[in-house]
Amino acid sequence: MDRWEGLKKSLYDGKGDYLKRICVFCGSSSGNNSKYAKSARNLGATLAEQDVTLVYGGSNIGLMGEIANSMIDRNGNVIGIIPQVLVDKEVAFTHLQDLRIVNSMHERKALMAELADGFISMPGGFGTLEETIEMLTWTQLGIHEKPIGLFNIEGYFDRLCGFIDHMVLEGFLVQGFRDMLLMDHQPDGLLDKMIKFRPPQIDKWWKDKLGKPRLDG
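The chain above was modelled as a monomer; its predicted structure follows.
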């Protein structure tokens, strides 16, 4: 069985559906390590080969531009979603066949979440971090049950995961919610983990040893 045949089977969730659309959060910069851009192109190639639609922030610069161009070079399907304020700054990927211009950053994120069957975060800054944490929070609250994965290039997310482990240690997050954050350094390995994901069956508002409601986490 070749790599793509194995991955194709992994994208099947056993319920008659595939991960048909994946939203990728990533930087509008390329970072200081050339491996970030190379990995963005590799992820785009993986998604295109598997006929998975890319949903992303609609920009033509940084890692966002790299993954979009990689998809387009392989005739992949790309949906870009970008607020008017960034179109005005001339960073929109105007050559996309499906570029959706919205009124605000909030509307952008809501539409990305609505369209996607799962989420992958690549290296990025505040925006990438905020989007990732919000999608995790939505899973925690039961707003959706979609998998969230970190594409951990060159250990980029190691310190973030260390901080999340610290949340567990200090009693602000339960281990079951920590475990719903997936991570891999290879695109196909991450996709395999995403398709196997099942949301934790935990009530966020668990009780402490005294029986008092706890609102932590």
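Residues 182 and 189 are 10 Å apart (CA to CA).
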